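Chapter review. Work through the record for Response regulatory domain-containing protein before attempting the end-of-chapter questions.
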Amino acid sequence: MIVRKRILILDDEPSTRLLLRHYFSKGYNLTIHENGLKELNRLEKSKHADLTITNLKTPKMDGFDFIDEICSKDRFRGAQIIVTSGLAEIEVRKRIDRNCANVQKLGQISTLKERV
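Structure tokens for Response regulatory domain-containing protein:
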């Protein structure tokens, strides 16, 4: 039995969710949400994703807070996170908790699949 990697996509833009679903529909188990708070509550009760792709502007809990919560829990140490955002990388790094070294910023979605 082949174990497929789990990818969590967190984005409030329907077009971005659709694009990422298309890119990763084959070969990965996808979980796609637009609300960071709901997803964080779900993650507390289940296995975490091998990779999280998140936008920084999401409702109820923005991507910065979501990342800080993930990185503050031992259970999620080592989680791989890719940020999709129009913000400059330096600005993103300034706001993300230093305990989370596995966060990368991605400027163009077209190069995302190469990083997974």
